[in-house]
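#struct-pred
JK: can someone run the complex with T4K? inputs below
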Amino acid sequence: MSVPIDALIQKMPPELRFESPVYVTRPNLPTLEEYASCLAPAWERHWLTNDGCLHEALERQLAEYLGTPYLRLFCNGTIALLTALQALELEPGNVITTPFSFPATVNVLHWHRLRPVFCDIEPESHNLDPAHLQALIGPDTRAILPVHVYGRPCKVEAIQDIAGQHGLPVVYDAAHAIGVRYKGKSLLCQGDMSMVSFHATKLFTTAEGGALIMNSETLYDRIRLLKNFGIADEDTVIAPGINGKMNELQAALGLARINTVNDEIQQRRRIARLYHDGLGKTPGIALPPLHIPDVESNFAYFPVRVEARMFGMDRNTLCSILRYFNVFARKYFYPLCSSYAWCRVAKGALPVAESAAENALCLPIFGKLPFAWVQQICAIINEAGSIVRSGCNNSHA
Ligand code: T4K
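RT: done, structure tokens with the ligand placed:
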């Protein structure tokens, strides 16, 4: 569907343009003074990494917040996921995962020489489809790696049933899922292990960072070794580990914000409601649900689906128009992981994921996003849609 963007923009009220960029997210930062006071104990001790006191405090506080005894901090989410797979000591073979994710999910498999087998997703949740998952399991399947995309829970019971029937481990990429609760418990307690990311773009951040949550003491002990080169003590190295340690500067940032996670989520919920007020009746813009049964959401993302025929223009055109107005919405997750050269999946094999990747657009959402800005973003979308539907593409204003 081709829309003359320049002509359309000329018809739109210029005052809708933001003076400075509005990004898809912004980190929830403390003041510099708050950060410095959290960092001070490390400075006083001249202790910067390797199990410092801030690392220890953050690990404990996060484990309490999530309600799990088994949590290990990491320098970032990708290394955490890489380490989780290392801990499972999988034989060569396949891992079933989703194509609708960030490159990290599939690239860690490549680093372990495990072959990704892509499972299509469900149209509503954008998560791995259990019926397709069941059909994909074969003699070479070694594990299942689902993603709670945008923090929305996968069908965890169905996945666990399938994994149980075939004796397969489940490692969740829960990069987006801090603060999400499912049936009253943290979603991060599902599966054998879950990885959560604390990157600057996440609602709880340590700049770079992440954690693994695991379901057994055995894995908890093994992960501790693996994230520190496999060193057991000064004289003994007992496993092929890596440097996955979170440092004290990262941990201090986490400590400065850990108590604000729930407030950040509350504020995002208000913003999501405002988007529903502003876009709920817009033809061709499908909104994420405000409430999912059994789930306390974290509103980590606000993904809309652009139905080109009804809205009047496709996702890419809307994204370009928003950019002109200084709104940096993002096409998470395009391109699909299955389309990367090293995955070699033919187009058409994963129809639901392909459609999602063509139509999904994440609008800005973060705790400090002013309500008036949300209304302005909705006005840009509504104005553009109604101009194009009333036939601007025939005019040459
Ligand atoms: N699995 C999944 C499903 C993931 O989504 C991710 C990461 C991972 C695994 C890996 O976890 P980590 O190893 O990263 O812990 C961003 C993040 O870099 C990435 O962490 C995240 N997913 C992904 C969804 O988003 P980009 O390429 O979109 O980042 P970037 O730099 O374009 O940032 C997006 C916007 O955020 C910017 O336009 C402005 C804002 N921003 C960004 C940064 C870095 C800030 O306001 N401040 C900042 O410091 O990937």
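RT: quick notes.
The chain has a mean pLDDT of 96.
DSSP finds 14 helices and 17 strands in the chain.
JK: thanks, will look after standup
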